[in-house]
Amino acid sequence: MSRIVRVLVADANLEHLSQISDGLRNRGFVNLLEMSGQLALSRAKAERPDILILGTNFPDLGTDRIVAELKNDPETWHIPILLVGDEADTKDLAGNLALQADGHIVTPFSEAELSARLAVALRLKTMMSELQNRAVTMAQFGVDGHDGWPDPVTEATAKVLLVGMEGGDPETIQAALRDRADVETVDNPADALHRLASPEIEAVVVAGGNDAQDLLDFCGDIRSTPTLFHLPLLLVFPPTTFADLSVPYREGASEAMKLPFRPEDLRARLFMYVKNEHLRRRMLDAYRGSVHRAINDDVTGLFNEKFLDKHLELLVEDAFRWDKNLSVTVIDLPAVRHMRRKHGSELADRLLKQVGGVISRLVRGEDLCARLGDDSFCVVLPESALEGASVTVQRITGVVSFTDFALPDLNEPVAVQPRIGNTTFKPGDTAAGLVGRAQAAALAAEAA
Hints:
Elements: E1 6-10, H1 14-26, E2 30-34, H2 37-47, E3 51-54, H3 63-71, E4 81-85, H4 87-94, E5 103-106, H5 111-140, E6 159-164, H6 170-177, E7 182-186, H7 189-195, E8 203-207, H8 212-223, E9 233-237, H9 246-250, E10 255-258, H10 263-288, H11 305-322, E11 326-332, H12 334-343, H13 345-362, E12 368-372, E13 376-382, H14 386-401, E14 404-405, E15 414-415, E16 419-424, H15 431-447
Parallel strand pairs: 1-2, 1-3, 3-4, 4-5, 6-7, 6-8, 8-9, 9-10
Antiparallel strand pairs: 11-13, 11-16, 12-13, 14-15
Helix pairs in contact: 2-3, 5-10, 5-11, 6-10, 12-13, 13-14
């Protein structure tokens, strides 16, 4: 069962406060409410909510000061801040949201939109917390943890693919992004998928028409491609395309916007997602780009078992202290053991390295992937319940199972059928106990 999410809602506007509180309560979130800017700041520092939803017109303290104090404090910089207000309230702030706060909610809003904003914010919070925790563990091994934000996201750094569909309005979108992003255009979804085989694209914006199914099919194509599973995907469409705005979100859209839109709203939302994508890529690069013998495995280049043990101890303590979810998955590879027995360690290690490379590309940025023993991997999924972790695990299992691995001196491709064991943190668990329970589940799967 997922843990309770705590959201601090601070707004001097009682109507906004009530509407957001109702939406959060319907989702089972815990509401922490304040109408004072100073009290909101103090409470955020003391209670560290999962998300802060912040109004823009406090009589006692400016919103800019609240954001600056929280983002410059190493204890609170990882709390996502969503600004809330009507168009007049947020107009002057929208252009800077990607660099200051982490998003905005323009009133009036639907519950589906609020839900989408919260999902993105929770993901961002998990990534930022893990980046901070990973730096702490790496420092214990004498390695620079690359803590803090990635390089600032500026409007000039966003590489965007604009996809035009029949009946869509790509010209309006391009005008909104002109001189603000590096925009490349394609005329149809097929060309878009071909173009996305190259990794430099950081977000996709789709100019959709009145055919809702075309948009949903494209969402499905993106999310069913493992390398594109996390890519920001923004849909812009006529107001009659979807009667229920929650539909495109359920099918994988990061953002769904109706025409007409304010250019500053599109830019703010786009750059928020680009910032998240920069952070995700930085986290992945942090353990792929350079290998440190103290923390990385010599064969696969992934984190080694010593780092896994130490980092998992930190995450277990964090999960207990702040009532967080934490899942652990062990991926056992009988095919590698068979290769080791039949052909020796050299070929087995080559196979292990190939499989590890595939797995590391399929995990989320915040997930830690490490070698475990001779022929297994362990994936730690911070702040994830088993239900959420199952999406990542299913993706890994499917791709590894249907990949033919080629090795020198063997005439036939090698098929690998991984055995998966999952478990989740419970109060009283130790790091070793969590890994042991997942290993036991993997062995049970092999025996079955």
